[in-house]
Design brief:
single chain, alpha/beta, 2 domains, 6-stranded mixed sheet, 5 helices
Length: 193
């Protein structure tokens, strides 16, 4: 009985090599190129100007911007929503949470490491939406490995950051705008956060 030698028979060797290459390319795609987790971050929408109130509600402009998030993110596959303990971030995510029938996970605005830990351990492969503040959004992006961004100017509410976390590559960040860029009246008097 003759032994079959793969290396001596091109009819058998070439399909085997092609099969191995296709397998390696597929594995490479899933382990090195495919995005694992997407994190979408925004600063809360416009808030009422109340210098003596540390937790003001959204203004009418802010409520309209929160509705715009439903239009922009309603079909993006968001699987989890986070907002800080402040009413303005909760109100910013509420319309989207209602549309998607998702709970809003509350996270302390001063505890970026805990938020990043929850995103990385509980939402791998998902699309996570986070509403923060003008100083915390850049801090979250940096903690996710998405680069360094300055504090968001007090009069800007239309920034959206999309951080893509890869399994074995450095995270990438895209900064874009959504909704109206017209600042609410009186924002010059606003306090930080």
């Amino acid at each position: 009985m003759a032994k079959i030698r793969f290396w001596a028979s091109p009819r058998l060797l070439y399909p085997l090599i092609i099969l191995l290459l296709v397998g390696l390319l597929a594995c490479g795609y899933f382990y090195f190129l495919r995005p694992v987790t997407t994190v979408i971050l925004v600063r809360h929408a416009e808030k009422n100007i109340e210098p003596d109130n540390p937790n003001p509600d959204l203004s009418p402009e802010g409520r309209a911007r929160a509705q715009e998030l439903v239009h922009v993110l309603g079909s993006t596959g968001v699987t989890a929503i986070y907002a800080t303990q402040y009413g303005r971030t909760q109100q910013t995510v509420q319309p989207l949470a209602e549309r998607l029938s998702l709970p809003v996970s509350r996270i302390d605005s001063g505890n970026t490491p805990e938020l990043v830990k929850q995103i990385k351990s509980n939402h791998t492969g998902g699309v996570v939406f986070v509403a923060g503040h003008n100083s915390t959004v850049p801090a979250i992006i940096a903690a996710l490995g998405g680069g360094t961004y300055p504090t968001i100017p007090e009069t800007e509410y239309d920034n959206m950051f999309i951080v893509t976390l890869y399994r074995f590559r450095k995270a990438s960040t895209v900064k874009m705008k959504y909704g109206s860029a017209v600042p609410a009246q009186g924002n010059q008097q606003m306090m930080s956060k």
